[in-house]
Amino acid sequence: MSINSYQIFITVTEQGSFIKASHVLNITSSAVSHSIAGLERVFDTLLINNTSPLFCSYI
């Protein structure tokens, strides 16, 4: 886990979207998704509900 993963998480929550965060960070949305999934594995919890029509961060 790197500081980049935390920055990606923060950007996703600020932007409210994986795609918008990927544009801001100039990385692919797949990379954003993988990074969030990695954080969720590390903390063994769902951090972001990205399947809901209303974007929801649990932190």
- The stretches of 5 or more residues where confidence is low (pLDDT under 50) are none
CATH architecture: Orthogonal Bundle
**The CATH topology is what?**
Arc Repressor Mutant, subunit A
Tally of separate helices? 3
Strand content: 5-15%
Overall residue-averaged pLDDT value: 88
Sequence of strands across the biggest β-sheet? 1-2
Helix content: 55-70%
Radius of gyration: 10 Å
**Looking at this structure, what is the CATH superfamily?**
Winged helix-like DNA-binding domain superfamily/Winged helix DNA-binding domain
CATH class: Mainly Alpha
Q: Which structural class fits the helix and strand makeup?
A: mainly alpha
The major pleated sheet works out as: 2 strands, antiparallel
Number of strands: 2
Report on the architecture of this protein.
- Strands 1-2 form a two-stranded antiparallel ribbon.
- It is built from three helices and two strands; from the N terminus they run αααββ.
- It has a single domain (3-57), classed as Winged helix-like DNA-binding domain superfamily/Winged helix DNA-binding domain (Arc Repressor Mutant, subunit A).
- α1 packs across α2, α1 packs across α3 (29-43) and α2 packs across α3 (29-43).
- With 59 residues, it is mainly alpha-helical.
- The chain is globular, with a radius of gyration of 10 Å.
- 61% of the residues lie in helices and 7% in strands.
- The protein starts with a helix and ends with a strand.
- β1 (48-49) and β2 (56-57) form a beta hairpin.
